Structures are given as structure tokens and as C-alpha cells.
Amino acid sequence: MNQRLRLAAALSLLALSACGGASNDDGTLQIAVVPKGTTHEFWKSVHAGAEAAARDLGVKVIWKGPIREDDRAEQVQIVENFVVRGVDGIVLMPMDRKALVTPAEEAGGQGIPVVVADSDLDWEGRTSFVATDNRRGGELAGEALVEMMGGEGSVILLRYQEGSASTFEREEGFLAAVGKAAGIEVISSNQYAGATNEGAYQASENLLNSFKDVDGIFCPNESAAFGMLRALQDSGRTDDVAFVGFDASEKLVEALRAGEIDALVLQDPVRMGELSVRACVAAARGEAVEPRIDTGVVVVPSASIDDPSVQALLKPDLSILDE
Fold it and tell me: Per DSSP, what are the bridge partners of residue 293?
């Protein structure tokens, strides 16, 4: 298809969207859910919550996100395609607080409500922001680490990646909390894990090689925590360092039970997916929506791993995705 035909097709779709959105012939609303990525366990949990809400509300969720959590161009393209398609609402979990503003504005300009979830966007046109209190999550991590270390020692913060609003808030909350302890020295806080497990492993290995006497470590997301876990295991230092991670996966939970990770800060991604879709559907139906919806955050030490409420967060039911 040449460029002129592509433009004509896009304009036709835009005209259709202006005449009533992308609802099915039977009137079923279509809600696009665009996560930062699709491979990490966190996003599978968000997907399960989104599907549960969709079934309860009688709408259709269209789940599509980039494979890599650093592919900003792909996420922008996905949102733009949904705008052209004329969906009835978009739940967007932006990997970059600035790069996704333009496609979000395009959606708003077409009358499509946009609920921003997980990580914030520098855009006041969003319908609602549904997320963890990420700064508080970082503070909880810092407070837990300081307590584990007895208020003394050296600490490493391995950041996630630049532009990610959610993890930036966690990182800043963590630094604020440990900064209150006079006996804690932050010896590295300017290194980034990146979006992949392998990149996180390499960054962690480099940090452990550079700082032989570190006493405590915090990693603000699942992939960074997993990369650091592998590096600590490979260097035989899991017993020597107090380690707090963020989010859960099968490997991280195993390490928490084994004491190789001392605590995990847990969000409720299933609830995040559910509440995001509910807010988006309400907006699409012309109902009032709260501008900020907090989905909760807790810190879980290894000793509390078998608490039933903790197990529900560590091992969410994802069976709905197989139905």
C-alpha cells in the first residue's frame, strides 16, 4: 500500500472513530490496554486483573504492548494505532513520562478517555491515574533496609532506567528514607539496570566488582532485582548483603523464602489492572472517575512469606488468561 492509500485508510478510520468509537456491532465497548512490556510476571498479573474487570463489566479488553520495556517507539506506535482504530478507551502504562504524551494527546483529541496506570505521564489530560504510591514504596524499602543493617553501613541503589516515572519515584523515596539514617552511606546511586534481565545482571556484576564491602542493596523493579540476585548468587555474597527488591516473580519468591532476598516491596498488579479498566469503562460511559486511585503497597520480609494475604500478592491467580 502506498503512502496515499495508507493516509486515506487512516482518515477513514478516524472518521469512523469520530462517529462512535470501535464498539462491536452488539455495542460492546473496546478498551485498549497498553502495558510497558509483556514478558515480566508483573504485566501478566495486570493483564489478569484487566480481563477480570472486562468480563464483569461486559466489555472487551484488547491487550497489546511492546516486548521490550525500553522500546519507546513501539509503544508510541501501538497507542497511535489504537487512536486510528477508534477504540472506546485506552489504559496506558507509559514507559517514558514524556515520550508518550503526544499519542495520549492524540487520543484525547479524538474524545478517547485515557487512564494512565502504573507510571505517571507529564500530561494533565488523563482521565485518571491508577497506580501504587511509588514514593511510599521506595520509602518502605529504605526503612526496611536501614532496620536490617542496624542503622549503619554502605548501600547501593541500582536504578531501573531513565524516563520511567514509577521507578524514579521509588528510587527517590528510597534515598530520602536512608538519608535520614546518619550511619548509612550511599556509595552508588547513579547506575541503571536497563530493561532486560541480562542487562541488569551485567550492571549488578559491575557494581559488585567495584564495591566489595557493600552492606545493603535496593533494586526498584522485578528485572533489576532478578539481575542483582543472580550476581549475588554467582559471587557467593547472598549471606553478606542485606537485599531488598521490588515486585515478585517465581525466582524472586524462591529467593525470598531461601533468605537470599531479605524483603520484597509488593504492589497489587491484579488490582491495578482491574481498577484501571473499571475507571476507563466508567469514563467511556460518561460516568465520573476519581482523578487518583491508589492500588496499595506493602513491604514483605522473608519471615512473613507464608501469610495468606502475602501469598495472594506473591502468587496471583492468572488462570483467567488461559481460558
Answer: 130
DSSP structure class, residue 321? G
Taking alpha carbons only, the member of 69, 48, 76, 94 closest to residue 221 is 69
63-80 pLDDT, tens digit each: 999 999 999 999 999 999
Which cell numbers hold the place of 286? 460518561
The pTM score is 0.84
CA nearest neighbour of 116 among 296, 274, 276: 276
Q: Which domains, and CATH codes, for the chain?
A: 3-131+268-294 (3.40.50.2300), 134-266 (3.40.50.2300)
Strand partners, 154: 185
DSSP lists the bridge partners of residue 258 as: none
- pLDDT of 305 reads 96
Quote the longest CA-to-CA distance of the chain: 67
- pLDDT in the model for residue 188: 98
Cα–Cα distance between 286 and 299 in angstroms, integer? 37
Place of cell 508518550: 100
Q: Which helix (H) or strand (E) holds 272?
A: helix 269-284
Question: Contact at 8 Å (CB) between 122 and 98?
Answer: yes
- Looking at 110-261, list the stretches that DSSP marks H as alpha helix, in order from N- to C-terminal side: 134-148, 165-178, 197-210, 222-234, 250-258
Q: Within its chain, how far is the Cα of 43 from the centroid?
A: 7
